[in-house]
Write a sequence for this structure.
C-alpha cells in the first residue's frame, strides 16, 4: 500500500519531537510497567486521593470490578455502596483496577475516550468526555472470532484510532498538535462491556457516569484494521463508516459526530493528563470516540465494518 504519508512526515521532521512540549520523562523501574506514563492509584489523572473514600475502599471497588471481568458476570453498581463518590474517586478506582491488571503482567497500549457525542453527554447529565485504559490483553485482530460469553453485555462501537508517533503534553494543545503528533489513523471498533447493570436490582438506581468511569469507561477491547492513513491525508471529520450485521446495514456514522473532530477528544485527554504533569506517549493507541450507537451482539452474528477510504474488516461473534 502507499506509504507516502510516512515519507511526508519524515520530510517535515515531525517524528523527532513531542507536540506541545515533551512531558516529563517516564519514571524507570518496575512500578512503571508497560507504556502507561503513570498507573499508580495516587498519581494518575484525577487520582489525587484528597478526600472521601480511603485507599482500602478504592481498592475494594477495583477488586470487585476485576472479579466481574474475570468471572464474566455483572456486580452491584459502585455508587450503590458509595452514592456520593466523585468523578475523581471513580478515576482512582479505575487506576487501582489497572494496577491489578498490570500486576498480572498486562501492558498498557493506550487509552479510550468515551461520551464524546452531545447525545451521550446529555443522557449522562455531563458536559465532558470520559476515558479508560487499553492493555495488550484487550487487543483483538480483525476477523478474529469474538466470544460474546466472554464479556458482560457485549456491544460494539465504530471509531477511529490514532497511533501516536510523538509524546503529547501540555495544557494548551490544539487539534493541529494532535495531528502533528500522530503517526497514522486507522479504522477501529471498540468492544464495550458493563460490569455493572444499567439499573441496580437491589437499589433501583440508574447507572451514573461515576459508575461508568470506575468501570474503565465500559471499555473491554479494541479491533483495528483496514488501511491506515496519515492524519492529514483526509479531512477526518468526513470519514464515515457503515456497520453491517449479517448483510444488513445496522448503523452508519460520520466522525464529525465526535466533538466536531475526532482529534478533539485526544486534546481533552492530553490536557487532562497535563494537569497531573503527565503526557500521552509515543506508540500509544488512542480510541477517539464512537460515532455510532452501541450495537448489541448475539452468537452467530457476522459484522462487517466499511470505512470507505480507510478500508473494511469483519468481526464474527461466536
Amino acid at each position: 500500500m502507499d506509504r507516502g504519508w510516512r515519507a511526508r512526515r519524515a520530510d517535515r521532521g515531525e517524528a523527532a519531537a513531542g507536540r506541545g512540549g515533551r512531558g516529563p520523562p517516564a519514571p524507570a523501574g518496575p512500578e512503571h510497567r508497560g507504556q502507561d506514563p503513570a498507573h499508580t492509584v495516587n498519581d494518575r489523572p484525577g487520582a489525587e486521593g484528597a478526600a472521601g473514600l480511603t485507599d482500602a475502599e478504592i481498592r475494594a471497588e477495583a477488586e470487585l470490578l476485576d472479579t466481574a471481568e474475570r468471572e464474566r458476570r455483572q456486580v452491584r453498581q459502585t455508587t450503590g455502596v458509595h452514592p456520593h463518590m466523585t468523578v475523581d474517586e471513580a478515576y482512582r478506582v479505575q487506576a487501582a483496577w489497572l494496577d491489578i491488571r498490570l500486576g498480572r503482567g498486562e501492558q498498557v497500549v493506550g487509552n479510550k475516550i468515551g461520551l464524546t457525542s452531545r447525545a451521550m453527554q446529555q443522557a449522562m447529565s455531563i458536559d465532558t468526555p470520559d476515558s479508560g485504559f487499553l492493555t495488550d490483553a484487550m487487543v483483538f485482530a480483525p476477523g478474529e472470532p469474538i466470544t460474546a460469553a466472554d464479556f458482560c453485555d457485549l456491544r460494539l462501537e465504530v471509531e477511529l484510532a490514532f497511533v501516536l508517533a510523538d509524546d503529547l503534553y501540555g495544557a494548551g494543545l490544539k487539534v493541529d498538535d494532535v495531528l502533528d503528533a500522530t503517526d497514522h489513523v486507522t479504522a477501529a471498533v471498540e468492544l464495550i462491556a458493563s460490569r455493572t447493570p444499567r439499573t441496580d436490582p437491589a437499589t433501583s438506581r440508574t447507572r451514573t457516569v461515576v459508575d461508568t468511569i470506575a468501570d474503565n469507561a465500559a471499555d473491554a477491547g479494541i479491533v483495528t484494521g483496514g488501511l491506515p492513513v496519515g492524519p492529514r491525508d483526509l479531512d477526518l471529520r468526513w470519514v464515515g463508516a457503515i456497520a453491517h450485521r449479517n448483510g444488513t446495514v445496522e448503523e452508519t456514522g460520520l466522525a464529525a459526530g465526535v466533538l466536531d473532530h475526532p482529534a478533539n477528544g485526544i486534546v481533552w485527554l492530553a490536557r487532562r493528563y497535563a494537569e497531573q504533569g503527565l503526557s500521552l506517549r509515543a506508540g500509544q493507541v488512542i480510541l477517539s470516540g464512537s460515532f455510532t450507537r452501541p450495537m448489541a451482539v448475539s452468537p452467530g452474528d457476522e459484522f462487517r465494518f466499511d470505512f470507505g477510504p480507510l478500508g473494511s474488516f469483519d468481526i464474527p461473534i461466536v
The longest helix spans residues 55-71.
